[in-house]
Amino acid sequence: MPVTRTASRALTALTTVALLGLPLAPSASAESSLGHIRTASIVNSPIYAAPPDIPAENVMAHMREFQAIADRNGGTRAHGRPGYKASVDFVKAKLDAAGFRTTLQSFTHNGATGWNLTADWTSGDANQIVFLGAHLDSVTAGPGMNDNASGSAAALETALAVSRAKLVTQKKLRFGWWGAEELGLIGSRYYVNSLPAAERTKIKSYLNFDMVGARNTTTWGVYNDNAAIAQMFQAYFRGKGIPTRSMNIGGRSDHASFSRVGIPVGGIGSGSDPCYHQRCDTITNVAANVMGVATNAAAHGAWTLAGATFAAGEPAAA
Ligand code: DPN
Ligand code: ZN
Predict the structure, then answer these.
(1) Tally of CB atoms within 10 A around 292
(2) Which parts of 210-285 fold into alpha helices (H)?
(3) 254 in ligand 1 pocket by Cβ < 6 Å?
(4) Which of 88, 100, 147, 210 has its CA 20 to 30 A from that of 37?
(5) 56-309 adopts what CATH topology?
(6) Which residues are catalytic?
(7) Would you state the pLDDT for residue 45?
């Protein structure tokens, strides 16, 4: 059937909107005519509240704490070492004070206890969960500041921004910090495996943050696992004039624990660096401006995917 002029124009406009990751009007006909894009089911619409501009200094304060934790604990925050549990305790205390409902899940690996920490925001439909996560463990060789205090701090500061905004969302925001990723995604796989099937299907998307602070980052990696999520991040970076590249890290980080059970996943990364998995992956190995970009991109993902409808607290522009 030939496409009418009006329909063609409407299709072009809708496609553009979808590609930009902008909110689509919640119209059943729009979604069915663009069924192959399936953006509306993942990217919420309409969006009334924009995320705040989060200062890089906020997230660097968390980075300094992670470095101090490593310094006090033999230079590492690895699974089975006291620096790991100290990292968990630090993040949990911040979240508890900010009004999140936190859960500590323990598991055993290589004869040592590990922990996953999850935190649910108070608002949103508990049957539709938008998840942001990062691995909290380092390798034993060093303090793991880019890998992955950076993602942990970005997720933490995003959560704290949600709290400061007293954010009201359509879907429920859940944040996760995973143990023993460096030993084979142990913590996140344990978490996903321990969820009953009915709980898994409530998770509508999972965003991963692993290595988001590398110095000299010029282009941002955007995970290419899910088109709608990737488009959302690409549109965000495009709006900031920041170049992106498609990133496929396969099964190398915790998003894989979620995608293997069919959950749409995405994420961003600054990429690796010369201190990857080494002792020199200290706080001087990360850049504040890069951490700021990562955190604001994470907040954009949280606000957009969860459908932030109302912010009663801090104004959108800091
Ligand atoms: N951060 C790496 C690790 O945990 O060992 C995995 C990774 C590699 C993530 C490359 C992103 C890019
Ligand atoms: Zn990592």
Answers:
(1) 21
(2) 227-239, 255-259
(3) no
(4) 210
(5) Aminopeptidase (3.40.630)
(6) 181
(7) 63
CA dist., res. 248 & res. 184, Å (int) = 17
**What pLDDT, on the 0 to 100 scale, is given for residue 18?**
35
d(CA 31, ligand 2 centre) in Å: 36
Q: Which residues of 33-61 are buried (b: 16+ CB within 10 A; e: fewer)?
A: ebeebebbebbbbebebebbebebebbbe
Q: How far is the CA of 152 from the centre of ligand 1 (A)?
A: 13
Helix or strand run (H / E) with residue 104: strand 101-109
In short, whether 59's Cβ falls inside 6 Å of ligand 1 is no
Cα–ligand 2 centroid distance for 85 (angstroms): 17
Residues with CB under 5 A from ligand 2 (ion): 147-148, 210
Residue 8's Cβ-count burial label (10 Å; 0-12, 13-18, 19+) is exposed
How confident is the model at residue 314, as a pLDDT? 66
Count of H-run helices and E-run strands, the chain: 10, 10
User: What CA–CA distance (Å, rounded) separates 183 from 139?
Assistant: 8
How does pLDDT run across 300-316, given as a tens digit for each residue? 999 999 999 887 886 65
The number of angstroms, rounded, from the C-alpha of 142 to the middle of its chain's C-alpha atoms is: 23
Listed by start position, the domains of the chain span 5-41, 56-309
Task: Mark the ranges of the chain whose per-residue pLDDT is less than 50.
Answer: 1-40, 317-318
Q: Is 273 in the pocket of ligand 1 (CB under 6 A)?
A: no
Q: Which residues contact 246 (CB under 8 A, 6 or more apart)?
A: 221, 222, 224, 230
CB 42 within 8 A of CB 305: yes
